Amino acid sequence: MKLGGREPETDNLKALSDEEIMVRCATGSEEAFQILVSRYRPRIINLITRFVGDVDRAEDIAQEVFIRVYRNRERYRKSGKFSTWIFTIAANLAKNEIRRKVRHRRVVSMDEEKEPGTSLASTLADRGPGPGQTLERKELENLILNAIEALPERYRLALVLRDLEGLAYEEVSRVLGIPGGTVRSRINRARLMVKDKLESFVRVDYL
Amino acid sequence: MNCRNAKANFSSYIEQELSEIERRGVAAHLGRCPRCSSDLFAMQKAMSLLRWVARVEGSPDFTDRLLERIHAEKRPEPAAPAWLGPLVEDWRRTCRDFGAMLAAPAPVGALLAALLLGGGGGAFLVGTLRTQAVTSPAPVVQTPDASSVASELVDAATSTPPAVEAASVTTPVGASPAGTSPAGTSVMASAPPTVMASAPSTVAKSASASDRKAEPRPATVRSRRTASPAEAEKGVEVAAWSTGGKRLDGLPEGPPPISRVEYVLDRVDVNGRPIEAVPAGLLVQEGSVTF
Asked: Does B151 touch chain A (CB under 8 A)?
């Protein structure tokens, strides 16, 4: 959708930091908002997908994340890091979704319930490698996704933020609102759990 | 140091965040415990595999749909047909009054509860509420209608965070924040610094069109690490680079010398068959771990 922005202004905006663009956004610049969306859309969708395990639902939640950013643009303070802010919103909404799913799961019958760890893999398999790719890649990807999905919520989010999205420990700490030591502990624990899940694939015996 | 303590420090050890004393403690334990040593290698391998998973980009019309929603929010509510005007106004007033009732002082709330528990009919209930709200001295709520009240409640429940305080990291836009190793060497936070990586550029070319959509974007190397003085003393030339989990296009000319290659990531699948075409996005083919 074209919103009537002038190209030179867009180019100027692209050179700015997230925080500076957010300030422009707060003053009503839709172009600024679009640039933020283009910068963060893949990361936000990826984060939420890895956490909730459903690509379509993740897109809906990602839309809500950006709507929140837009609605609250005037409340944003430039002193804060924009990425921390938007990841915090995304993490909160993703956690809400997980809780909603848990509540829903309690009322569905057992035979309707999916096997744990299948939803993310099956969802992504639909959008995964094309026909030219090997079956092995799908299998491996499913193994990895299942390992991530099998993690308890508090470990999974920390791991995804750190190892898939590349956030620093300090930023993960701010996003999740927990101390840095707890973040390190959770991520270490999560990595060990993933290692255990992928045991047959990653084991190197030196015994 | 026992196995439990060593495992608790694996991540910090890999990312070189331990103090020298702690690092030596872990290294000493690894030297005498093959099981933990094997576990550490396996964990590093698992970490590299995590970045192997393709990124989900979302549908192409994501931004258009988002902007459409935002424009819809900004548009004024469509005007009701003239013949509906009185009804609409009546309904809005009712909703507004109901919102005021919810936030009203205790006596009014008690009346509301009594009415609800009393089981009056719908028309009676609405009519009474309106009367009470109008005569109430303290209509606190200023929300225009009940749907807005509900919206606010949802907003509160999902807890949009307030603006974040000053960040200590001043990372450039688009770059992952970097940590610093004890030796003062800059290390990318998004990838373990001890993982050596090299991938042929032909990997990317072999990707199909459908894969290009999901695979990571090309990235240039964003950090390199050379041996720390302590490592150099031991005769270890270490070099590692990170692309922040992105595809290894545009690697610098020739890899730095690798003095110790501890493992080579299997180019076989889980069934032991060789992987003919290295999938696009595969980040690590060779690995180096230094102790």
From this structure: no
